Amino acid sequence: MSQPTSRNVVPVSCYIRTFNEARKIGDVVAAAGEVADEVIVVDSGSTDATVAIAEAEGARVIRQAWLGRGRQKRFAEDQCRNDYVLDLDADEVVSAELAADIRALFAQGPPPLPVYELKLVIVPPVGRPWWNLAISHRRKLYNRRIVRQPDHLAWDQFELPRGVLAGRLHGPLMHHSFRDIEHMMAKLNTVTTVRATETRLHRRRWEVGARVLLAYPFYFLKHFVLRGYFRVGVYGLATAGVLAYGRWLRDAKMYERLLTERKRRGDTGKRLEAPSPKLNPR
Fold first, then answer.
1. Do 134 and 202 lie in a common domain?
2. What is the pLDDT of residues 98-149, one digit of tens each?
3. Which phi-psi region, left, alpha or beta, contains residue 213 (left: φ > 0; alpha: ψ -120 to 50)?
4. How high is the mean pLDDT of the chain?
5. pLDDT given for residue 267 in this prediction
6. Which residue in 89, 117, 16 sits closest to 58, CA to CA?
7. What is the side-by-side order of every strand in the sheet holding 166-175?
8. Which residues of the chain have pLDDT under 50?
9. Domain enclosing residue 147, as ranges
10. What is the pTM of this model?
11. What is the pLDDT of residues 165-175, one digit of tens each?
12. Pick from 121, 102, 119, 117: which is nearest to 32 by CA?
């Protein structure tokens, strides 16, 4: 997949949250800057070369201590000068095809819809991009005057308000989501802690315990068969196993939380409110 090579920008502000993202931030900022007339990096205390690389590629870097997943995005939205914003993670690279789609949206003025979904294609650390498996679509190009990211510690994907329609662009957003399996495991460990801590527990202990005992094979089959990881052979098998483990780990952490709350409160029947996690996104 080729990358944009000529600068032809439109009135879009791209924002990127970072924390020690030197691995890909240069490519992310450079590609975004080929289509967005403003690129903002909101950095939460990187100790590597993230800030220097982002600034060298033309991004405006704003330092902001970590506020939580959704709240960090809301802070970034407020720094943007344009109404339409492009929400990128620090490992998502705009392809030439996606850049062309975005330019076409603005060719006759503001786009007809306030929200657009982008197609994420995973680029593994070895081999070719996974064009035919694990494809997802995320609402990443939107009018911040119409929708906002959630004011939340753990959740950073907004719901469409009633009556608001979303379009879909076809050009891929290339997602370099992990550098190796160790990195994938570390990311899953962080995410599952946040989700298990922040999720409202509406299931009883025996229900969560049943998931811990029985659900892993089903999680594995979901990734390996339904999401298509079988198409990339042994590496797909390994990846599906790790992803299934990540989903199972969330159940295990929720079960541990139930036991801890039961011991602390002596009450097994009430629904439990979550404490506030302070984990960094990476």
1. no
2. 999 999 999 999 999 999 999 999 999 999 999 999 999 999 999 999 999 9
3. alpha
4. 91
5. 52
6. 16
7. 60-63, 36-43, 10-18, 84-88, 136-143, 115-122, 166-175, 92-94
8. 1-6, 268, 272
9. 10-175
10. 0.85
11. 999 999 999 99
12. 102
| Chosen domain end from 142, 175, 208 | 175
The CATH number of the domain where 48 resides is what?
3.90.550.10
Q: Are residues 62 and 198 in the same domain?
A: no
- C-alpha to C-alpha distance for 166 and 174, rounded to whole angstroms: 21
Residue 110: closest CA among 178, 22, 10 = 10
pLDDT, residue 201, reads 66
Q: Is 269 helix (H, G, I), strand (E, B) or coil?
A: coil
Q: How many domains does the chain have?
A: 2
In a domain, 3, yes or no: no
Give the end of a domain, one of 175, 193, 224.
175
The helix/strand/coil state of 248 is: helix
Flag whether 91 is in a domain: yes
Q: Which of 244, 245, 246, 251 is nearest to 207 (CA)?
A: 251
Same-domain check for residues 122 and 167: yes
Q: In the block, which residue shows the tokens 């990443």?
A: 140
